[in-house]
Design brief:
This protein has about 600 residues and is α+β, with helices and mostly antiparallel strands. It is built from 25 helices and 18 strands. The chain starts with a helix and ends in a 7-residue tail after the last helix.
Length: about 600
């Protein structure tokens, strides 16, 4: 439904974006903004920026961006009304009852039908498992020593060996082709038409935290490929924002959660009583998963396979967990490969003991790192200590960093003061690299240096104009007095048609009213891609210039460039009687621009 602008503004202004996003992502204040790991893509360095002043977020890596409402929509996979409702409830603002728009009704109905189709498919797979045609699947689960209670609890099933059993079943239940396809349950064959996506596989229903079946994982029986097949991403299934077993693990009273690699590890651990176990859904562990886990616990135990691939996955997960504010430890599974094998051979008591003795993640990293160097050779030992110092710079808190320096120095017989000095040197190197990566190119007009996150100079042609427009609009939102300086020379119609022009028009209107709310401008656009573009406009990084004279020069260059391009477009559009005279007038105006000098 449509809500009044005043109500939306009340909800948005009552939900500080730093507080809201900070409950999902670990944020660190750097200058005027807050930074963290982006929850919408995998990254090692925090390029996700949140501005309290502008009430906006923006990722310089994947370009996700918008207001607090946009964030809830993207992160929770909510519709606009659902996001407003959540934020309203958070601050005690009740949304009025009313009629939804036709588009909102259709979207809600489609989502509900997809969930119904998934539930029906899950029931079919479960019943199939215990039928004559499901013997292969049931035999597999029996060999894995799963009880009927566990099979029922997780809704495990079998997809059958036919090519379109589930499709036919769902159609018999009244689901049309579109719903079955949108749910990710079907494929298409030129020979057979609509077919099952899953066949001859044991099935693992994937549930969200509200116990809705949102997708499936299937393991093939026999030598087929791929060995594991997951549902594609749909309107209800986003594998980067859900974890297998979390619908149960979220209720665990344990102060930690155990992160595993696969479905069977989670199931075996839950059957053994370790209901705090979860796994990512056929993808590598991401910052989104870490943010999800952080809602329920601040400590994690990584229970990855003990082989080389598992070790690499654990090392990658450690940095992601740490950046999300989680404290990771590593469970030693040797002499077995995975938790399932370990529990079956050594039992639950021994596994519980391994959990309690889980290794500090930093010393696990050092133990893996030292394998790369010959510590008996002075040169190798020096390189190892330099690598150790580089890792120690990851601890931002000084007290924590010093504690780790002292422990590492004692463990590896290194002079503590020498190690502390090496850490300072490495930190300075990394800070220098970070600063250079965000510094703009001197090719940008005038003395103003800016970037939109990519650290490149001002590109030619249309993209160069768009970036000049972004620089100016960001500058105006940062320093409203800039608007008064450019107002006599520019109007919103001078900006490139589309999102940029509308953004300029809304910003200029706000300036005339003596206010500036980029978040309100974001929310005036309907499409998610438009939110990203507007967020990018207001998050162009501007490097401060030294003097007022340099500011004046930079501002003049930007205005001239934008105005000239606008006049060129107007000149090209002149047709009919008097067109030549109008073109000459435009040319004279362009000549006058060369004399322009804007003063702040």
């Amino acid at each position: 439904m449509r809500y009044s602008d005043d109500l939306v503004e009340r909800i948005r202004t009552s939900n500080d974006i730093v507080d809201v996003i900070g409950s999902y992502v670990r944020l660190t204040k750097k200058g005027a903004n807050y930074f963290g790991l982006c929850p919408f893509h995998s990254e090692k360095t925090g390029s996700f920026s949140v501005s309290r002043e502008k009430q906006m977020y923006y990722c310089f890596g994947c370009h996700a961006g918008g207001s607090v409402i946009t964030f809830i929509m993207e992160y929770e996979n909510f519709s606009y009304p659902e996001a407003l409702k959540l934020l309203g409830e958070r601050v005690g603002i009740e949304l009025p009852e009313g009629n939804e728009s036709e588009e909102e009704k259709r979207a809600a109905s489609l989502r509900a039908k997809i969930l119904e189709a998934n539930k029906a498919a899950a029931v079919y797979y479960y019943k199939k498992l215990y039928s004559e045609g499901g013997k292969t699947g049931l035999s597999y689960f029996r060999k894995r020593m799963l009880s009927d209670e566990t099979i029922k609890s997780f809704g495990l099933g079998f997809s059958g060996k036919g090519g379109s059993e589930v499709v036919r079943y769902l159609k018999s239940k009244g689901f049309d082709d579109r719903i079955i396809n949108e749910a990710g349950l079907s494929g298409f064959s030129e020979k057979y038409g609509m077919t099952d996506r899953f066949w001859n596989r044991v099935m693992f229903p994937i549930m969200d935290i509200n116990n809705h079946v949102i997708g499936f994982g299937g393991r093939v029986m026999g030598d087929g490929e791929p060995k594991y097949l997951n549902s594609p991403e749909t309107r209800v299934f986003d594998k980067s924002r859900n974890m297998y077993g979390l619908n149960v693990a979220r209720r665990s009273k344990k102060p930690y959660r155990i992160i595993c690699e696969g479905y069977m590890d989670v199931i075996s651990m839950h059957q053994a009583g370790f209901t705090e176990a979860v796994a990512s859904l056929g993808t590598a562990f991401t910052s989104g998963h870490a943010s999800l886990i952080s809602r329920y616990a601040k400590d994690v135990r990584l229970s990855y396979d003990s082989d080389g691939a598992g070790t690499k996955a654990a090392l990658r997960a450690i940095s992601i967990c740490r950046a999300a504010g989680l404290t990771p430890r590593i469970i030693d599974l040797k002499p077995y490969k995975d938790p399932d094998e370990f529990i079956k051979n050594l039992g639950t008591e021994e596994f519980a003991e391994r959990i309690e003795k889980a290794e500090n993640a930093f010393f696990f990293e050092l133990r893996m790192l030292e394998k790369e160097f010959d510590l008996n050779d002075p040169a190798g030992r020096t390189r190892f200590q330099e690598a150790m110092a580089a890792k120690l710079t990851a601890f931002e808190d000084e007290l924590e960093r010093n504690n780790y320096i002292a422990s590492a120095a004692a463990k590896y017989a290194v002079d503590e003061q020498a190690l502390k000095k090496a850490v300072a040197v490495e930190g300075a190197k990394q800070e220098g690299i970070r600063i250079r990566s965000f510094r703009g190119s001197p090719d940008i007009p005038g003395a103003l240096k800016a970037s939109a996150g990519e650290g490149r100079g001002d590109p030619p042609g249309e993209e160069g104009i768009l970036r000049a427009e972004r620089y100016l609009l960001t500058w105006i939102s940062d320093e409203p007095e800039v608007y008064q300086a450019v107002k006599p020379y520019l109007e919103a119609g001078d900006f490139t048609a589309g999102v940029t022009e509308k953004t300029a028009r809304l910003l200029f209107a706000q300036m005339e009213e003596g206010k500036c709310s980029p978040a309100a401008i974001v929310d005036s656009f309907e499409e998610e891609e438009e939110h990203r573009k507007v967020a990018e406009i207001f998050n162009t990084k501007l490097e401060a210039v030294e003097s007022t004279e340099e500011k004046n020069l930079a501002l003049t260059d930007l205005v001239v460039k934008i105005k000239e391009e606008s006049l060129k477009r107007k000149s090209a559009d002149q047709t009919g009687e008097g067109a030549l005279a109008r073109r000459i007038s435009i040319r004279n105006t362009m000549d006058e621009l060369k004399k322009l000098q804007i003063r702040l």
